[in-house]
Every structure is written in structure tokens, then in C-alpha cells.
Amino acid sequence: MSKGVLTLKPKGITADGKGWLVGIAIGFVWLSPLFWMDATTFIVLTAAGLAMGMIFFMVASGLTLIFGLMDVLNMAHGAFFAWGAYVGFSLLGMFEWLGWVETGTFLQCMTTVLVILAVAFLVGALIGAILERIIIRQVYGDHLRQILITMGASFVMVELIKIFWGLNDEVVAVPLAFRGSFDIMDVVVNRFRILAIVLGIIVFGVIQMVLKRTKLGIIVRAGVENREIVETTGYNINRIFTGVFCAGVGLAAMAGVMMAMFKQEVHPAMGDDSFFFALMVVIIGGMGSVGGSFLGSLMLGLAFNYVAFLLPKAALGVNILVMAATLLIRPTGLFGHEE
Amino acid sequence: MTQELSPVHLDYMQEQRTRFVSPTFLLQIALAASLLAGPLLVPSFQVMDVMAKIMIFTVVAASYDLILGYTGSLSLAHGMFFGMGAYALGLVCYHSGSPHWYHLILAAGIAIFLGIVFSLLISLFSLRVKAIFFAMVTLAIAEYAHILGIQWSELTLGEDGISFELPWIFHSDWSAGRFLLSEIDDRLMIYYLIFLSSLLLFMGLVRFVRSPLGRVLKSIRSNENRAVALGFKTFQYKTVAVVFGSTLSSIAGVLFAMWLRYVNPDSVLGLGLMVNVLLMVLIGGLGTLYGGIIGVAFIIVSENWLPGALKAAAGIFPPSEIITRLADRWHLYFGVLFILVIIFFPRGVVGTFRQVIARRKAEVLRKRRTEVRY
Question: Is the confidence metric ipTM above 0.90 for this complex?
């Protein structure tokens, strides 16, 4: 089988066969906050960090795939995130009318969340398809103009949000079953965070499955490696571009829904912050690597939460610090390819 | 001629000969004169405000053009340097209580220092890798600076911003009678300081681009691999360009804060400013320096009068919620314009204009050659 050709060797930190050393170092860094806090706090913060990281991962995975395959740095990714959040906000209003938000069984709440996520994904993908076909296609092969044109698109999309939904912050209601928290032996874990973590792991699993186990995934991975060769084998790479772009921005829209419920509010500029985080995740993980962005988002989510607890003022700086440290060690990110 | 001259030297001699008679030069003189005499002849604050902003942003756009148009590295932290300069002046004047004239120099010094240090750090850190990587790193850092500006409220006073007084003849209660149609007051003095500084800065930029170093930058823009093959260490040249451009931007930030006497994170550090500067440079044309002036004038003028025009246009339609909202969001039209400019004017106004002229010259040249042949 052609598996040997197409399986991407992880050119990451473990390439030199000293993976266990790196593993111990990572474990030590991860557990080091225990010096300053008790185990209960640590677990609570870890849950929060993982939930946050999973939401970042959903944004960053799309960004990194789009970048890896199409060479497009999609500056409008944050706008899709915000669109997803607002679509979710509106849909929650509709489900509230059904009575499945403020009241309702676990099953009804679960349905609510899943339907909203699916609709947000579809809306994101639809807008993405329009954007990719009409605007981004005009400037293929020109980095600078791609960045600029997606920036303009992001501008327009955020303004459209302001026109449709108004300028103000809106409060988002979380479905009843995901409010409050579990209390297991004095460890209080927010229910919604568990949902976010589970969802993030599912998304990661699905992406990895699709990339590693399906023919489409093989084509996409091959496209990341070398676009021309995929074209010469007779696949219409443009269609694949559109597909990956739609899926990527759809994921961002889903992440927007999750973040809206996580923070329990939406505002038009919410995409900016998340885009900023996702960008750092992609830089840390290496551009084009889904596994790298998974690791990177967990790193950022956890680091942010630990530091926010220990030194609230430094919480924003720690992301830049993590990014700088990663780049010093590996200039192309954890799983990035050497030039 | 006894000695064969190099193309560079010939080009230079041509430039020297036509220096004071070329239409461009006359245009420059006319522009400078109108900016100089404008506030004296038109006693309207709005006009003066627009002109001052045009001058400041011309420096920002031109220095950005140096980075983007001449070396091809997309820095998205240009707005951050602008904000640094603005905050340097704001903080120095705010904390000094009653500022003296040397506080202005101090603030300018701090702005230059911060500009050099940070741009050097960023360049050393990220310019060596791919161009797109530089864009991402600068974007991350600029966003971070914006968030810092909002959150670090002990230093920056958060989203409320800082309003402050200026020293010396720029102080708001300073006035010295009338001259022509306008009053000689602090505003006018600041206006002329801005005029003088931005003129000097712009001329410095033009000189920089015409220097041997600027020629190397142009060669990097057209073919970096070839420049490397010719033995130029392109990384160093790029770094110099980025540092120079960013520092100019932070000086322009000082001027901007001086004009407004107020800074807040969204107006001087936000991504909106960065997008505006990009749009200015793109409308004008990359790698043209002068194109920036057209782009800046277009944007500043439309920024000032577009909202009003939209409101007037909305008045024609029957009053409804969606129409008023559409009329309020004038940034929407900016975004659409941005996309259209990128699709249809890849070289900007001046760039396209120059292309047309070059094509016509080539046409003439070809005709002459064919005439000789037959």
C-alpha cells in the first residue's frame, strides 16, 4: 500500500528518539502549579483550562488546515466565530420558546445544544463557501492579497453582525442541564466545561479519523505536503479547497457557539480575541498540523488558567511567553515542517 | 563621453537634471504650499483637523509603504508602534502634572527608543522565517498590545483613555492675536509643528528610498533570491527597513496624540487603525511612497464626511430600522471598498498610473526603434 508514502512522519519533538525525556519535562511543567495550590484547586483549574483549550482548538484546527492546504491565512476566522456565536444566541431564543432551555430534561437540552452546533456549522460553512468562491478565489497564489482580502471580509462580516443584531452585549442562556456543577468529593467541576471537553475530544477524534482513515483525508494531507502532485493525479484541488475552507470556518462557528455559552454573553468583537488566541495556537503548534494545534491549545488554555489564578495580572502575558519560548526552541512550531 | 557610466549613475544624473522642473516637483510644492497656507485662509476647525490628520497619516502610510512595499514583509504591528508613540506622549504629559517643553522632547525620545527596541526585537525574532510568519507574529504582538492597553489600567487608565495638557505655546490657553483670517493660538502652533515634522519625516523617507540602501530594498522586493545571490544579506536590509519604518510610525503617533490631546486604546492601538493604514497604502499603491498621500486623503476625507452623507442618503428612503442601521455602519462600506480595491486595483492608484505611463513610454521607444530599423 502507498501508506508508507502518505503517512506523515511526525517531525516533532520526538524525532530524535528522546521522547520520554520531553514527556517527563512536560509532565513536570504541567504539575508544577501544585507547588503553589492544593490538588482540588488544581483539578478545577485543569478542567477550566481543558475546556478553554478545547474551544480554542476548534478555532485553531480550521485555521491551521486552511493554512496548511490552501496557504491562506484566513483573517476572517474570528468573524466566523462571532457569527457562530450570534446564530447560537438567536437559536437559543427559539428553543427557549419551545421551553427546552430554561426548563427541560437532559435529553432536550442535549438536543438543543447539538442542533444549535449543527446549524452554526452549516451557517458558517455556507458563508465560507460564498466567501471562498467569490472573493478568495480571485487572489489565489498571492499571500499578501489573501491576507488583506480576508481582513476586508472580516470587517464586512463583523459590521453585518452589528447591523443584524445590534451593537450591545447580549446575555446568553445556557440550557438548564448544563448549568451548575458536579460536586465529586469536594471537587467542584462546572457541567458545561465537561461538555466542552467531551465535544472537543470528539471533534479532535473526528478530524483525525477523517484525515487518517479516509480517502478524502489522504488527499487533503497530500495537498498540505505538495499541491501540484495532487493536481497531477487528477483531483480537482479547487473543490477540495472549498470543502476544507467550509469545514474549517464551520468549526470556528461551532466554537463560537461553545464560547457564547461558556462566557454566557455575545458581543460583536468577540471574534478578535479568539482569533488572536487561535493564531498563537497555530504558531505554537506549527502551521498545517492538527495535532500540533491540539497540543498548543491545551498548553495555552491550561497555562492561562493556572497563571490567572496565581498571578491574575500576568495571565495575558503568559500566552506570549509560551509562544516565544516555543519559537525559541522550534522556530516553525512544535510540529511545523522545516523550510 | 570617455567613460562608460553605469545604469545607476545614468539614472541618478537624469534625476538630478530634471529635479526642479518635473511636474512631480511642482505638484509637491503646490501641495506643501496649500497645507502651509490652508489654516490661515480657511478658518474652519474641521478643515484644519482633516489637513493635520492627512499630514500625520501620510507619514504613517509612507513608512508602512517602506516596510510592505519596499521589502514585502507584511508587518501588522505598525499600528502598535503608532500607539506606543501616542501613549509615550500621553503618559509623560499626564504624569508630569504641568509639563514643560522638555517633556515633549523626552516623550519623542521615549517613542523613538521604544520604536527601535521593539521593532528590532520583533525583526530579529521573526523576520528570518517566512513572510507569512512575520505577519502572524506581528499580528499576535499587536493584538496583545491592544489588550494590554485596555487591561493594564494602572498605567494606561484603561478604555477611558488619557486626556492631557501640552506645555509651552501648545498649551490650550495660549493665544497671540489674529493673522489673516485665523487666530494665532495653540491649535495653529501644533498644526505648524505637525506640518514641519511630517514634512521632514517624509523627506527623510524619500531620501532613504533613494539611497543605495533603498536600491537594495527595491531589489529585494523584485527578487529576493537574486539579491541574496548577489551577496546582499537581505535579512539585515529588511531589519533596517522595518526598524526605520516602525520608528517613524511611533514618531507620527506622538504627533497624533499631540493633535488630539487624548489617547485611548481603540483609537491608537486597535486593529481598525492598522486596517485603515493598510487601506491607505493599498489605495495609493504599494512601493510608491507618494501614493500614500492620495490614499490618506481619500480615507480621512471620507471618514469625516461619509457618515453625514450616508445619513443624508438614508433620509431619501422611508424611515425604517434597517435603513438607519445600514446608514450608521459606514465601516461596512469601507470593508466592501477594501475588498474591491484589492481585487480591481492590485497596484493602487499611483501604481496603476505609473504602469500606464511606463507602458506608453515603452510604446514610444519601440516605435522609435522600428523607425530606425526601416
Answer: no
